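Practice problem: predict the structure.
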Amino acid sequence: MRQFMYGDDGDIFYRRSVDISEMMIPVRCLRCHDGIYDLTKVEVTARYIDCSMWKTPCCDQLVDDLIWTGRAAYVNLDRNGHDERR
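Answer:
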């Protein structure tokens, strides 16, 4: 099942419905806007003093967990699957 959504930039996209009940830290990818994955299950490819980096399992892009850059790679989801940034 897919849900009709609008992206942050106004583009139309579709988001998959995913069961997040077993995920410890469910997040939605802000690179492809379609992927939902468990942040505790990603394979970290590099660690630095101020961040960790990994490839997203949904779109295979290299991302980091820096929040001060202004380009977030993901947004946390609550237990109902809604963005917590609201």
